[in-house]
Amino acid sequence: MIAWKWLRSWEAVLVAALAVELLALGAINPAFLSVENLLFSTSDFAHVILGALGLTLVVITAGIDISGVSIMGLASIVLGLSWVAGADIWLAVLIALAVGSLAGTFNGLLVANTDVNPLVLTLGSMFMFAGIATGLPGVLDLLGFKAYGAGGFAAYQYEGITGLPKEFTALAHGGLGWVPNPLIAVLLFALVLSLILHRTRFGRYLYLIGVNPNVARYSGVPVKSVIVVVYTLSAFGAAIAGVILTSYFTSARSDLGSEALLNIITAVVLGSAAFADGAKIAFIPKLTGVGFFESGGKAPSRWARKSARR
């Protein structure tokens, strides 16, 4: 009975669809189905999973945050500009994560203290963060910092910041055995959020707020504080994604991750989150499956290029 119920569930449909896609891609290129290649492919959509994990917590509270894609770019350009300004690359990473988290705190404060729909607020902040990321190189130019390259700071706005230290760019291309570092970061972030959601009082607060914020408030739940924290956590995940993308592409750009919005929302929805009355957390296998759907037919050609380099 339990098995039959699971076979009729959405999870079973997703598993079946994923199996069909993998078999189809494997038929095109048998090398695609190797464990090493499948694990390697996750680096292409790790930023989508990181963004979806944080957004899922927001959705559990019956909220929405679509500014994460701009926070990825903001974190990336802040990392690059901090390094250009003279900071150690790992200090620049911490600064980028801090700035991304502050962007989420800003979103949370707006959502918690106004009656405006979170979709409208985060739509506005998405454009604001993107504008800030694009304009930051000009700010450093005005402050008198030195730019690398003939193009100066103006080139950073559109061409990105290259020449990042090898120990940083190796971050997204290294791994533990066959498990790439981006996937390790995803698993660690998922583990932390899962523990917060299922093992802490804060996690129970999220569900109660998602069902009825007024009842939560009358029950003594600090609704505003919880909302601020959950939007900060969502932005922190987006900032991690921005750092990983910067390492992956070996360049800090203000537009990194900008194309991932629909993929992130799709991952949250397919991962069993609902935008109406709270949700259950999306499991990492579901999100990984969505990532393979998003990656589509790119992986066989990537494997061919990788084999050609050997």
Fill in the keyword field for this structure:
disordered C terminus, mainly alpha, ABC transporter involved in vitamin B12 uptake, BtuC, 310 residues, 1% strand
Give a brief outline of the structure:
The protein has 310 residues and is an all-alpha fold. It has helices at 2-7, 10-28, 35-41, 46-60, 68-84, 89-113, 118-142, 152-159, 166-169, 181-199, 201-211, 213-218, 223-249, 261-270, 284-295, 298-309, and strands spanning 175-176, 179-180. The chain has a single domain, classed as ABC transporter involved in vitamin B12 uptake, BtuC, CATH 1.10.3470.
What do these coordinates show?
- By secondary structure, this protein is mostly helical.
- It has one domain: ABC transporter involved in vitamin B12 uptake, BtuC.
- Helix content is 72%, strand content 1%.
- It is built from 16 helices and two strands.
- A two-stranded antiparallel sheet has the order 1-2.
- A hairpin with a 2-residue loop joins strand 1 and strand 2.
- Helix 4 crosses helix 14 (261-270), helix 5 runs parallel beside helix 7 and helix 5 (68-84) crosses helix 13 (223-249).
- It starts with a helix and ends with a helix.
Number of helices: 16
Number of strands: 2
What is the mean predicted local confidence, pLDDT?
83
Strand content: under 5%
CATH fold category name: ABC transporter involved in vitamin B12 uptake, BtuC
The sequence of SSEs as H and E is HHHHHHHHHEEHHHHHHH
CATH architecture tag: Orthogonal Bundle
Low-confidence stretches: 276-284, 303-310
List the strand order in the largest sheet: 1-2
Helix share bin: over 70%
Report the C-alpha radius of gyration, rounded. Answer: 20 Å
**What structural class should be given to the helix and strand makeup?**
mainly alpha
Number of domains: 1
Most strands sheet: 2 strands, antiparallel
Tell the overall outline. globular
Alpha-carbon distance between the two ends: 50 Å
Name of the CATH first level: Mainly Alpha
